[in-house]
Amino acid sequence: MIREFKQINLADRNSFHVEQEAALLVEFDQAEELPAIFARHRGMPWMVLSGGNNILFTQDYAGMLLTPVSEHIEVLDEGAEEVRLRVDAGLEWDDLVAWAVARDLWGIENLSLIPGKVGAAPVQNIGAYGVEAGDAIERVCYYDVEAEAQRVLERAQCGFGYRESIFKQALKGRVVITAVEFRLSRRPMPRLGYGDVEREVAARGGATLGNIREAICAIRRSKLPDTAVLGNAGSFFKNPVVERAVADRLLAEWPEMPHYPTAEAGRVKLAAGWLIDRAGWKGMRRGAVGVHERQALVLVNHGGATGGEVLAFAHEVAAAVKARFGVEITPEVNVI
Ligand code: EPU
């Protein structure tokens, strides 16, 4: 089923709730509908607007936004150890996590309550509490707009990294993800090593799937603002990855600075939230835009902010971090 909306206000379709318009928005539920949609609007600029949870519109969009709405979960294979699923791009990510937890399937429980849809998960390889979506993704199904063909990419070809994938690089602007296949485990594999997770899980009686999901939801709710109440796009910045020497210089002055090893030798990941916080910007507000008071990595729209105002404020925050620590922080959010 295809539904078209012309000159549509996007305020309810982006989690920052900025008031911009798109010339056209097309909702579709079948991958097979995409060739006809592109044929009808040939030559028009286009991009995918999924849940709108990781995007900042700073202007109206003169092209076509494509929104997948199909929400089906298909069990492909039920083994004794593992279950394979094919999930449509339009399903709310957290509905998939709830579905898996209810069926005793392990692998994505640490990603509870991440806002957004399944089709967006591989794009920035959503991650939290020591787990990334790419760990459980087996294949990604998409329509290649240039080749005019349905394609499938195996996990090893997806280029998953920290908030990275091929869909943000070589395939950017070329594909519409229509479904994602996952491999989940029947065998318990609790991953509790990040921050407060272990303590919160223990307080609930131990490492069952249900307890882990509850603990993660509680931690997220205590730090991250609800987009229905306060416009935001989760972490606005990526955590910066710096040379070991840079980290050592900062650690000499701030021994308590959070820092994490990375897969790349000689590179260390820092916590942008900590840097912004220590630069004195946590809870800071400029007009309708601000840094969230409980998590400095999140910028919020207190109501009525334009995308341009959010972006200008983000530049100020990044400049303050650069001035204080000499470290560049860059947006994780897609700025349009
Ligand atoms: N910190 C502060 N002040 C702050 C925020 C953080 O001092 O205002 C410190 C914390 O105390 C901690 C460290 O910085 O020592 C890291 O903070 P936290 O564990 O809250 O995680 P994060 O690095 O700020 C990342 C993800 C989040 C994800 C959490 C938990 C990125 C860009 N963000 O945040 O993802 O939920 O880890 O795994 O990697 C998102 O992408 O939208 C998102 C919310």
How many DSSP H or I helices? 8
What proportion of the residues form beta strands (DSSP E)? 25-35%
The hetero compounds bound to this protein are: uridine-diphosphate-2(N-acetylglucosaminyl) butyric acid
Give the strand order of the largest sheet, numbering strands 1, 2, ... along the chain. 6-7-12-10-11
In words, what does this structure look like?
24% of the residues lie in helices and 29% in strands. The two termini are 28 Å apart. By secondary structure, the protein is of the alpha+beta class. The model has no long low-confidence stretch (mean pLDDT 96). The chain has a 5-stranded antiparallel sheet. It has a 4-stranded mixed sheet with strand order 1-2-5-3, with no helix packed on it. It has a 4-stranded antiparallel sheet with strand order 13-19-18-17, with helices on one face. Strand 10 and strand 11 form a beta hairpin. It folds into 3 domains: 67 residues, Uridine Diphospho-n-acetylenolpyruvylglucosamine Reductase, domain 2 (2-Layer Sandwich); 127 residues, Uridine Diphospho-n-acetylenolpyruvylglucosamine Reductase, domain 3; 105 residues, Alpha-Beta Complex (Uridine Diphospho-n-acetylenolpyruvylglucosamine Reductase, domain 1), CATH 3.90.78. It contains 8 helices and 20 strands. Bound molecules: uridine-diphosphate-2(N-acetylglucosaminyl) butyric acid.
